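Subject: design request, 500 residues
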């Protein structure tokens, strides 16, 4: 099954998923059902493989928010909830989609997407957590596999098309987007396509509310957000109804049920975390087409009347607009009030760098690293600053230390490739670029970079062994057509060295 998923890199999405569905159905015919009925049609392993395949398409669409501070926050809050709802069968991954519509969606295998519009629309962290808890429950209760199993009496092709619709919905949904290749503009339509039943939604609410309470959030956060969205669903044209209500229909009865469920748990009084305020401010800054408009938004209220997170957003808007002295002053004020907020250290160091206070900026970053070792956004921003001032070797070193301990994103792998290249370590740079291509589903491109590395005259023996072993590993997951294509483009010297 792994090979089938990897082969999809060279085939159409629907065709690839049809193969998976057909195989799953064939297995169902041949084998007795020894576990969950959902397992008979789609195993947890297959769910994870399909989810990874969808994620590659979504990443390649360029719609995922790569801001390390926003990405780190959504994963932090998501995993806090998932650990209470997950029995260890899923490795959850949370990501933010650059889409102003209010929505969130769950993909097979534990991938949870949240639109920037939903984060903006949430009034507090409990409401955002409530949505994440609901989506986590859709995964842990296997609603996707169960929806497919519920339709198992349909023809094999119908089931294949259902899975195809799931993926196409995750990446676009409408015909134009499908024909254009893959877009995530309607990512959440995945749930609409598989038609979660009313019972699925109630079950996701029930499991999610329990996870909310057990993870320290207000269990009423979920129904609170539902009420806000439901109030917008009036006589407005359908196109103005929040997208979340289309993919997760919310009725008065469902809101009442959620309230009743939440009342079974002690009321938890919470305060929004600094990370929530920071992430929301950064998303608000990026919402505007120009830095000037972002500055105008954050200057609507006087500085004295603003919260610290509004002031932070104001400083980030100033940075984007080139007003670095104004930004620097705000960051100094903020860090003086609270040294525990990592974003303030990052913002201060960046403004100092922009003002060409290089030594001061480096000291600010260094002190922050000592306070918050291996914090992902901090290390990423520090590495970017080091590259800006020509200290690529140190950038490579700190990134290597981080990414050896934290699973990297494709963009982080690309950053370390740049650092290695600028540090003069061409072989390792090519190796990283190979990994970047593999994460994008391009197996041939991944091997191509490794071959370039193997052709370097300065290559060390241990690197040669490592790179050749990596090529052998990748080849195991390639289709016959990909292997033939690889043979056609393979340089003779490398071919001889690899024995092909």
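Subject: RE: design request

Done. Sequence follows.
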């Amino acid at each position: 099954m792994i090979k089938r998923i990897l082969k999809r890199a060279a085939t159409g999405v629907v065709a690839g998923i049809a193969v998976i569905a057909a195989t799953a159905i064939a297995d169902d015919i041949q084998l007795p059902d020894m576990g969950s009925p959902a397992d008979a049609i789609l195993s947890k392993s297959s769910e994870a493989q399909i989810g990874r395949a969808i994620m590659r398409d979504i990443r390649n669409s360029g719609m995922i928010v790569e801001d390390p501070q926003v990405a780190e926050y959504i994963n932090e809050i998501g995993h806090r909830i998932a650990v209470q709802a997950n029995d260890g069968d899923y490795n959850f991954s949370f990501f933010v989609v650059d889409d102003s519509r209010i929505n969130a969606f769950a993909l097979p295998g534990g991938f949870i997407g949240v639109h920037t519009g939903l984060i903006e629309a949430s009034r507090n962290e409990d409401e955002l957590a409530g949505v994440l808890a609901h989506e986590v429950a859709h995964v842990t209760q296997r609603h996707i596999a169960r929806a497919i199993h519920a339709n198992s009496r349909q023809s094999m092709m119908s089931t294949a098309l259902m899975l195809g619709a799931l993926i196409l919905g995750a990446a676009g949904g409408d015909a134009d987007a499908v024909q254009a290749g893959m877009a995530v503009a309607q990512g959440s339509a995945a749930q609409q396509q598989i038609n979660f039943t009313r019972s699925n939604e109630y079950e996701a609410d029930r499991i999610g509310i329990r996870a909310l309470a057990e993870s320290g959030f207000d269990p009423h956060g979920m129904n609170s957000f539902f009420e806000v969205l439901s109030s917008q669903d009036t006589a407005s044209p359908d196109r103005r109804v929040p997208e979340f209500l289309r993919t997760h229909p919310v009725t008065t009865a469902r809101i009442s049920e959620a309230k009743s469920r939440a009342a079974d748990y002690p009321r938890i009084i919470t305060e929004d975390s600094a990370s929530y305020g920071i992430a929301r401010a950064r998303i608000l800054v990026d919402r505007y087409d120009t830095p000037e408009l972002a500055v105008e938004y954050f200057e609507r209220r006087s500085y004295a009347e603003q919260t610290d997170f509004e002031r932070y957003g104001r400083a980030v808007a100033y940075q984007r607009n080139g007003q670095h002295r104004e930004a620097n002053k705000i960051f100094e004020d903020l860090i003086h009030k609270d040294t525990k907020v990592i974003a303030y250290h990052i913002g201060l160091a960046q403004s100092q760098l922009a003002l060409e206070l290089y030594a001061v900026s480096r000291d600010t970053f260094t002190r922050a690293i000592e306070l918050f070792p291996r914090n992902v956004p901090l290390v990423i921003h520090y590495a970017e600053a080091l590259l800006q001032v020509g200290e690529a070797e140190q950038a490579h070193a700190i990134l290597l230390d981080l990414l050896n301990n934290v699973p990297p994103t494709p963009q982080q792998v690309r950053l370390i490739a740049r650092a290695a290249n600028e540090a003069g370590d061409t072989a390792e740079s090519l190796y990283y670029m190979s990994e970047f291509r593999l994460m994008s589903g391009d197996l041939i491109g991944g091997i191509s970079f490794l071959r370039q590395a193997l052709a370097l005259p300065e290559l060390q023996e241990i690197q040669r062994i490592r790179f050749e072993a990596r090529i052998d590993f990748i080849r195991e997951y390639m289709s016959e057509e990909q292997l033939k294509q690889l043979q056609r483009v393979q340089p003779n010297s490398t071919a001889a060295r690899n024995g092909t």
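Confidence is low (pLDDT under 50) at residues 1-35, 153-161, 170-195, 492-500.
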